[in-house]
Amino acid sequence: MTPPPARRRRRSDGDSAAPRLALPRRGSVRRSQMITTYGVGSLVAVDNESFVVSGIDDAHRSWTLDEAPIIHEHRLAHVLGVRHFRLPPASEDTSKDGVRVRRFPLWHSCPSCQSLQHVRGFNPPPGKNVCTDCDDEPLVPSRFVMACEDGHLDDFPYWKWLHRKNRDEGATGLCGGRMSMRFSGQSASLRSVLVSCTCGVPEASMEGAFRRLELFNLGVRCEGRRPWLKDAPAEFCTQTPRTLQRGSSSVWQPVLKSALSIPPWSDGLAAKLSKHWDNLRAYSSRVEIEIYLKGAFPGDHSVPVDAVMNLLAAEQEEDPAQESESDAAGMSRYQALRLQEYERLCAGNALRDKGREEQFVCEPPVSDAAALAPFGVGRPMLVKRLREVRALKAFTRIADPEASVEGHEAPLSLTPTDWLPAMEVHGEGVFVRLDEERLDAWADSEAVAERVEQMRTYHDRVLRERAVDPAEAPTSPATPRMVLLHTLSHILINEWSLEAGYPAASLRERLYADDTMAGSLIYTATSDSAGSLGGLVAQGEPRRLANTLLSALRRAQWCSADPLCMETETGGANGINRAACHACVLLPETSCEHGNGLLDRALLVGTPENPDLGFFAHALVL
Fold first, then answer.
1. Are 420 and 59 in contact (CB under 8 A)?
2. Do 428 and 532 meet the contact criterion of CB atoms below 8 Å apart?
3. Eight-state DSSP code of residue 189
4. For residue range 394-414, what is the model confidence (pLDDT) as tens digits?
5. Nearest residue to 600 via CA among 496, 400, 449
6. CA distances in angstroms from 121 to 13, 80, 384, listed in the order given
7. Half-sphere exposure (CA, 13 Å, Cβ side) for 509?
8. pTM of the model
9. Is the alpha carbon torsion for 446, 448, 449, 450 positive or negative?
10. What would the pLDDT profile of 464-512 be if each residue is shown by its tens digit?
């Protein structure tokens, strides 16, 4: 990553750009971290400096991806409105690729003279971040930044914070003094962080700066700044700014969208035809397509006409769902993407008659699935080969990662681009589907409906509180079917982490839960050898899966936090869980699709007062 250094010794803004070839490398991160941890708009610490990762605007070439491979995933690209995806640049010294970063925050302090001011006030040499008055003492970036829920980011208003009780002085915002910051050392709390000014105002600590309405009461308004986007104009913003720690996870949370590669897009042919799609769409007859392919691929018989026509037909079937651009339509398109995956997981895709390029192999087990009948579980499917593409669509700020709620999505660029950064994962998995008739009969129970309705009520309240317009807030996805499948996936992942040797963080759930779907895919979520040895597929054999289910359910009957865990009515973040805690069903955040929310093991095994509440209670008795 390469932040642009200053053009001259006395800088005007602290982040002006130098010629491209002169940009130094400031540090490196893994490719996957450019999607999940250090994506566009995030803050990254390099040694004693801090930077914000630039946007992906093609005009500014902030992301140099000349050597980075292109990723094709047609279905996900259609949903997100792009042509393709790109891998982030590799962090290699020999690579010419890289991502520009810009210095942020711009307010720094000197640990030697304790001066606190804008970085340009220290007058550092180009490319350095030092205090010239203290023999080039390295500066310390501000620990505190200011952000709002619309994704804007700004420096913390130290002057207003210190002079809040003496606002009559310097009505223009300046008092003529020099501010300084010191640490009393009496404790590690904010009370020990002290700010003072030579104008004579009383010294003030940072205690209370993190209160939700503290900056609002101070008269500080969000100015709509987006330092990660070059030349971005300030936006009008009505959100209340909040004080955050520079390294807090609340400063940046990715909005990731993913899809599995399924037929007919999973055999590699679509990627081979990527440069020819626009031309192929113009033809409607087989003869025209055949003539074009012979000219585009002379002597290459690996591009059959029938397969190309099947791809074109599949694309036309998906187009009607893409016509509307509203947010509601976007959500329905993503649900349609899940439904396609669910149908393919149920139907399977056998390895026979498939080439080496096939990226989705899903087959039923050879042995009889009768051992799973007492659990109300249908025949599992062994996904022996799968490919998942995860794309960074946008990001949020001040969003609770455990709230199962997406905040306002901040864009990755000023103008729309035809690509998004993404990663691909190759692995394997087990698809588990419940008996829908038995599931519907259980969900119709009054006790089950009442218990889930309470969770739904709390979640709806959270969604309304976070929405700009409460009347337009989305509804909670909590249903008996969804909560049951979600909790079942968690206990299976925990059990396989104990029995099969998989770290829980290397497994991931993919839920298919609505009125037409009742399944869950548990698959390897890493790109290392853990996803290619066949160990997870082996866990899907019916007898072994039945033993795993029985062991996991018995383990879920008791929690070391019981009876408190089982009897709680508002557990987890924002009270959207029931019987679920870190001692029983919670997982690492990377493994769960809903941020460890909407979980209740009582729906699996029942409660001491009402055993029939559990979907699997009968199987446990047997």
1. no
2. yes
3. S
4. 999 986 544 444 568 899 999
5. 449
6. 10, 44, 60
7. 29
8. 0.86
9. positive
10. 877 666 777 788 899 999 999 999 999 999 999 988 888 898 899 999 9
